[in-house]
Amino acid sequence: MTTSVHSTETFFNLRHMSVNDCDGLKYLFTSTTARKLVHLEELHIVKCVSMEEIFVKELNETASEAISFERLSTKVLDSLSSLSCFYSGNETLHLSSLITLLIWKCPSMKIFSNGNIDAESFMGIQVSLDRAEKLLFHQDLNTTVKLMFERGVITKL
User: Fold this and answer.
1) For the chain, what is the mean pLDDT?
2) Is residue 18, in this structure, part of any structural domain at all?
3) pTM of the prediction?
4) Which of 25, 34, 26 is nearest to 7 (CA)?
5) For 84-129, how does the pLDDT look when each residue is reduced to its tens digit (9 = 90+)?
6) Alpha carbon 55 to chain centroid, angstroms
7) Is residue 83 within 8 Å of residue 58, measured between CB atoms?
8) What is the 3-state secondary structure (H, E, C) of 101-134?
9) Is the predicted pLDDT of residue 33 greater than 80, yes or no?
10) How many CA atoms lie within 13 A of 35 on its CB side?
11) Distance (Å, rounded) from C-alpha 12 to C-alpha 36?
């Protein structure tokens, strides 16, 4: 996926994004484009069997500028059998509005991100489509995802 200046400007005002049944898609955006998504509030990715990462670090990128999703409050990752992480880069992710995250049927997801995660409002991960279920939380977002994977919570299909 090659990102042009025009396309990153187009995404600047994006607030809600839903991606469903995109079997050939390996990632959604590059890290450069991710930095332009400052208004993103909701992200739903469902049944994309080839999706390996949501945001991928560009090979020629040398900047270590943080990626901020200050308004992102709703995130759903559902039935993504190849998803290994949300972002594999080492840059810090700022997710100050994220309270909960739904991770459902993502058997390959071992970590959320390789970098630091700043998510001071984060309360836990919902691991069922039943909203009445208790949220899982242990120390932080990355640790919670790691424990979920180790315990087989997100590996069950």
Assistant:
1) 86
2) yes
3) 0.85
4) 34
5) 999 989 999 999 999 989 999 999 999 999 999 999 899 999 887 7
6) 7
7) no
8) EEEECCCCCCCCECCCEECCCCCEEECCCCCCCC
9) yes
10) 15
11) 5
State how many domains the chain has: 1
Sort 65 into a burial class: Cβ within 10 Å, 0-12 / 13-18 / 19+.
exposed
Confidence band (pLDDT; 50, 70, 90) for 3? Answer: very low
**Tokens standing for 30?**
């590059």
Domain membership flag for residue 156: no
127-144 residue pLDDT tens: 877 777 788 888 889 999
Asked if residue 157 belongs to a domain, the reply is: no
Q: Identify the helix (H) or strand (E) that includes residue 44.
A: strand 42-46
Tokens (6 digits) for 148: 């979920």
Q: Do 136 and 127 form a contact (C-beta atoms < 8 A)?
A: yes
Is residue 145 one of the residues assigned to a domain? yes
76: containing domain: 5-150
**Which residue type sits at 70?**
E
Structure confidence at residue 134 (pLDDT): 82
Do 117 and 146 contact (CB within 8 A), yes or no? no
From residue 17, alpha-carbon distances to 10, 12, 24, 65 in Å are 13, 12, 18, 23
